[in-house]
Specification:
heterodimer; A: 85 residues; mainly alpha; elongated; B: 444 residues; alpha/beta; Rossmann fold; GMP Synthetase, Chain A, domain 3; 2 domains; 7-stranded antiparallel beta sheet; 20 strands; globular
Chain lengths: 85, 444
Amino acid sequence: MSEDAPDDLDELRALVADLDASAAALRAYGEANDVPAIERGAKRVQGTLDSVKQNVPGALVRDGAGGDDDADPNGESGEGHEPGR
Amino acid sequence: MSRMWNPMLETMDRADLRALQVDRFREQVRHAYDHSPFYRRKLDAAGIDPDGIQTFEDVRAVPTTKKGELREAQGGEPFPYGDLLAASPEGVTEYHQTSGTTGEPVRQADSWSDWEWWGDCWATVLWAQGIRPDDRVFFPFSYNVFVAFWAAHYACERIGAEVVPGGNLSSAQRVRKMREIDVTAFASTPTYALRLAEVAREEGFEPTDFAVDTVVCAGEPGASVPGTKARIEEAWGADVYDHAGATEAGAWGFSCDGESVGLHLNEAQFLIEVLDEDGEPVDPGETGEIVITPLNRTAQPYIRFELRDEIGLREGAAVCDCGRTFRFAEGGVLGRLDDLTKVNGVLLAPTAIEDAVRSYDGVSDEYEVIIDDHEEKPDLDVVTVVAEENPETDVSADEASEELRKTLKQTTSITCRIDVVPYESLERPELKADRLDDRRENHV
């Protein structure tokens, strides 16, 4: 096993959370600076990451995952909604 | 919202862009040298040290790659890509191949990161042409081993637009689907964009009543041929855009929503050299052949590939009002060097005939060109343009023949025979059209 591999599930979840935070920051940069290649690329990373989370027990699925999180089709904030948990 | 997919790259200062190109070219050559035996042999034979590439002069010392070399290399091991392959076979995730118009098809291996790169290049194209997340984009083509439009499909996903795959449907089913779900854009060859409009009318629809406001063309130069572009715009009541690419190279050129007719060269992802017959760079304002290096390929890289496309190079802020700093191909791809042919000593570009036919309302969209030996004078060639009557005008076949003959004489300097035949006499191609039938026996 590679030395970089996490030792346990907590560490695995933390890695996923770090990636999620990085993707969100990239996306925010793209939006703020009007660079669709960064904003849309980061959104794609978030989509891929969602499928990784679904394979990690206990990993939090991002609010609005799987759709356009600019819009809430249910008219709800989604706050507190943690599918997959 | 930005008019550009990546304004950081598309408006980059020219000096910075050139430095970026040399850096990425060096990395690409290093990758090819380290992972592809084909390129290692080639570069060793030329005495090229990848790390020594520091200037454009160094770039030009690197040998070019010809299509014939690719075919030869792919005849060897490992099957099916030969030692062009610069990745492990397990690293290949996408198979495509060229259409084989000029010989045996070349197989194209792409890794996952290559395929992401393809999508990003196409996203640059589509975003420049107004495709946005609220678009519903239809792809009326047969999804198969040819790369055409596959990457555009995935670029739409990347943009966030809704993709409607229209493969394995008849043309009539396609236009009905486009109408039913209010498609806002579609991508096709120029030939097929015109054919779909024709089928829509046959199905009782008026294409201009559709929700389509954007037509993205690829595969043929038509959307940069003024006569063809105007016909597609009129048929669909939509903006029509051009794109240029190749299986070996990727999507390297695109028109935009600015005031220009031609293609921006995507110089952030490709090093595009425009060279004269001696292999020297042409100046802006001149015409030359493209030698291209995709700058971010891994599984099957191409180093200074001779694309055989000819363009008229332009540069500077005056070429387009969009703000891009990329150089520009005025009028799009002027011709494939493989398509140019000499007729009675005069160089004939098929696009010149296309523009003459499509700019004249007295004939319909379809046509073909036959070049043959003169029956009595063996030293002479005869060019016959077969065009169809236009059922929407009352121009007679004789009038149309005379008008086209005069126009072609003016634009090509060749006296052509014109044969105007009844509407729908000619075959309707559904992808690329092969309209030139060269029957000369002793022509080289």
